[in-house]
Design goal:
With about 350 residues, this protein is an alpha/beta fold. It is about 50% helix and about 15% strand.
């Protein structure tokens, strides 16, 4: 069978797709469709899959001249998608998020209406509040999946000693994993770097700070020659997060659905700083689930910018509090959603194969 994934823009839209693709690698032909100037042009080829790019543009949230640009770009992207789908002949299309999904799903629907037959289209939407593009897609897809599959490497973490050696960390120290996100999270990055400059990282702890490519040079320049750096490692990006999670006793991150899916699957407690401009406030709603379960503390972006992170770290790293949050986080671990997703793929493809195309 052939499965086409459409989506991109952020790691949160790409890594769940790659998790599914990796699980299908031995029994399916895989292709990705994304945008030419987004993160997928790096991540997808590194994962070993072909990427085809099309035009597209985010949906404006209010009437403006940008609406014309959006319409033109998405119409052109739909035409490109029609040609791609005709060439790839997918048995299933999985839309995983980002504005590039819209022209692909629309093209699949147009092709189905024209031929009275075509591949099923499913939408991966794990956020508590769907974004505008996914709300527009919901009526034209066959199914919506709310699970967050995680990559194979994260389901089998290495030992702490081995992971620490590869990352240049001290395995005897507890670890704070700071995730600036694939696109960078300036408020988090600046707040954590400030704590390092002030020597305010809790005693007995070390930091692995993954800044995201956009902020790496700025953060490393700000920390140059700082004395506290022996307990502080900075990386621009990690293609595989297995070593980082293996060394993490606490995570500081935004609250994208993909990150929270990993935290739940791995049972890691967290301090979550929802992105304040996320569509429909979905990150705040995502984070509230973990906070309500006692597995995370949630702090707003403005408070972190004002210096609240140091106090929160001091509270959470108290051994009893950390043990309680870790226990609550582990209670959120459940069955692997990838098994359910793979079963649905087999069912949808088999059902589609049994359909007879109707002549026009």
């Amino acid at each position: 069978m052939t499965v086409v994934f459409a989506g991109g823009g952020t790691g949160g839209h790409l890594y769940p797709a790659i998790a599914i693709a990796d699980a299908l690698r031995d029994r399916a032909s895989i292709a990705f469709i994304g945008a030419a100037n987004r993160l997928e042009t790096t991540i997808v080829p590194r994962a070993g899959y072909p990427l085809y790019t099309i035009a597209g543009h985010p949906m404006p949230r209010r009437p403006s001249l940008d609406l014309v640009k959006t319409a033109v770009a998405n119409l052109w992207g739909t035409a490109q998608s029609l040609r791609l789908l005709a060439a790839l002949r997918p048995d299933l299309i999985v839309a995983t998020g980002g504005y590039v999904c819209f022209p692909v799903a629309l093209a699949a629907r147009i092709a189905r209406l024209a031929k009275r037959s075509g591949p099923p289209v499913v939408l991966l939407e794990p956020n508590a509040a769907p974004g505008l593009t996914n709300r527009l897609l919901a009526p034209i897809v066959d199914e919506t999946w709310h699970q967050v599959p995680i990559r194979e490497s994260l389901r089998r973490l290495p030992s702490r000693d081995v992971a620490a050696q590869r990352l240049g960390l001290d395995p005897s120290l507890r670890g704070i994993l700071v995730l600036g996100g694939s696109q960078g999270a300036r408020t988090i990055n600046d707040a954590v770097a400030a704590l390092a400059r002030e020597g305010a990282i809790p005693q007995g702890w070390q930091v692995l700070h993954v800044t995201g490519e956009p902020d790496y040079a700025r953060v490393t320049a700000a920390l140059e020659n700082e004395p506290a750096m022996e307990r502080y490692a900075v990386r621009a990006y990690l293609d595989d997060m297995a070593d980082a999670y293996a060394c993490a006793d606490l995570v500081v991150a935004r609250a994208g659905a993909s990150t929270l899916g990993e935290l739940c699957a791995l049972g890691r407690p967290a301090i979550l700083v929802p992105y304040p401009h996320a569509a429909e406030g979905h990150q705040a709603r995502n984070a509230s689930r973990l906070q309500d379960a006692g597995a995370a503390l949630v702090v707003d972006d403005a408070a972190v910018a004002a210096g609240a992170l140091g106090g929160m770290l001091a509270v959470v790293t108290v051994p009893q509090r950390l043990a309680e949050m870790t226990d609550r986080a582990k209670q959120m671990q459940g069955s692997d959603p990838l098994t359910t997703i793979l079963a649905r793929i087999e069912s949808l493809v088999a059902r589609n194969d049994r359909r007879e195309p109707l002549a026009l």
